[in-house]
Amino acid sequence: MNKFEKHVQSKNNDVVDSGVGFVVGFLGLTAIYVVAQIFQIVAG
């Protein structure tokens, strides 16, 4: 076992972190899309 395995900075599950990152990114892009659609409807 090397020194990096002995002194772990974060013991969180990587799957959970990846899922949170995916959801946050998806919601951000969805918000951009929704705002663009609202502008298109209002302008049209």
From TrEMBL:
It comes from the Bacteria. The chain crosses the membrane at residues 20-43. Keywords: Membrane, Transmembrane, Transmembrane helix. This is YqzM family protein. It comes from Salinicoccus jeotgali. The lineage of its organism: Bacteria, Bacillati, Bacillota, Bacilli, Bacillales.
